[in-house]
Write a structure and sequence with these properties.
It is a single chain. It contains 10 helices and 14 strands. By secondary structure, the protein is α/β, with parallel strands linked by helices. The strands form 4 sheets. Strands 3-2-1-4-9-6-10 form a 7-stranded mixed β-sheet. A 3-stranded mixed β-sheet has the order 5-12-11, with helices on one face. A two-stranded antiparallel ribbon has the order 7-8. Helix 1 packs across helix 6 and helix 6 packs across helix 7. The longest helix is centred in the first third of the chain and has 24 residues.
Length: 341
């Protein structure tokens, strides 16, 4: 197992498998792609995810102390020094490292305090590459949860999201019992021009182990083929395509309130913080450090930060309050506000 420079044989780690550009992205949904091509890609995904899972299994002493949720974060090497760093300094800093796996496209050039699995799917692709990457993340999560059954849920989310992990884990722990085919929780109502109704995964989604097991079964190849087939049918939307796979395998779908998958207006952001409404679980499309930092100050405030915020409140209306903690954006510029100004 190859690790990033300076790392020891313990988590965090970077898997040795590198992304393989076997196809041009458009070829993944071409109906003329040979069956052997799917088998080749599926074999690489299987080998890569199995290597990462074995590494995790070899470090079972490090599985102690994490909660019941495995966090699977989609990222890209284009964002390792920005978005990934921002979440490592904020909400991920509240987690044991062994409860997190980043699905990137390449090993980082510099050592990072994160467990990172380089995908075998086409890199830097928002369409077919994302469909493939969503499938690979599910395959890896299933393998990790098989080896560590203290995990009950996997939560899949983008690297430009702020997640309130304790609140999310409470919401998942409060769920009613599931059926044998498992349950997927998220935001529903997205579709591809009237077809393929499914989830809107901008808010992330949570899947129980049974849901992952039902979808993947014993064949990564078959699961990948199902995902890529639905990807073609559903206009290359990865989340909508994956919904169809879960449906095919009898998985129950439930709404998870509090997932803010779209950037909110200031008025809607204020409403999301009000008492009597579902607790906010996450906010998506956080596109700068100042936005991420403000959210972290809002939900994990230090006394000095609250005082500074009170001073700033006299100078700007770009402030919000949560449970008596008022925090303000550095300016009214869109780059500083985690809402639409």
């Amino acid at each position: 197992m190859i690790m990033a420079a300076g790392m020891t044989a313990a988590w965090p780690f970077v898997a040795a498998v590198q992304p393989m550009h076997l196809f041009q992205p458009s070829s993944l949904v071409d109906m003329d792609v040979a069956q052997s091509s799917y088998r080749d890609l599926a074999a690489r995904i299987e080998a890569g995810t199995e290597a990462t899972a074995r590494k995790y299994s070899a470090l079972t002493s490090n599985t102690e102390g994490h909660g019941k949720v495995l966090y699977m974060v989609y990222s890209d090497s284009n964002f390792y020094k920005t978005r990934l760093q921002w979440i490592l300094k904020t909400w991920i800093a509240q987690l044991p490292l062994n409860s997190l796996m980043v699905i990137g496209d390449a090993a980082p050039k510099d050592a990072m305090a994160v467990n990172l699995h380089p995908t075998s799917c086409p890199a830097h692709s928002h369409w077919e590459g994302a469909c493939c990457k969503y499938a690979e993340a599910v395959i890896l999560a299933q393998k990790l949860m098989e080896r560590d059954r203290t995990f009950q849920w996997a939560y899949f989310v983008d690297d430009d999201a702020y997640v309130r992990t304790s609140t999310l884990e409470h919401a998942l722990g409060s769920q009613q019992p599931e059926g044998k085919h498992g349950v997927v929780l998220g935001t529903w109502g997205c579709a591809a021009h009237g077809k393929c109704p499914g989830m809107c995964a901008g808010g992330g989604y949570a899947a129980s182990f049974n849901a992952l097991h039902a979808a993947v079964g014993g064949s990564s190849e078959k699961f990948l083929q199902e995902q890529m087939s639905f990807c073609a049918d559903c206009e290359r939307w990865a989340d909508i395509a994956l919904t169809q796979v879960y449906k095919e395998h009898g998985t129950e779908h439930r709404k998870l309130p509090g997932l803010n998958g779209w950037k909110l207006s200031k008025a809607d952001f204020d409403r999301s913080l009000q008492m009597g409404r579902p607790e906010p679980l996450m906010y998506h499309y956080i596109s700068s450090w100042n936005q991420m930092d403000m959210l972290h100050r809002l939900f994990h405030s230090e006394p000095s930060q609250t005082i500074a915020s009170a001073d700033a409140a006299a100078q700007t209306v770009q402030c919000v309050e949560y449970r008596g903690n008022k925090q303000c954006a550095l300016s009214a510029n869109a780059a500083d506000c985690p809402w639409i100004p």
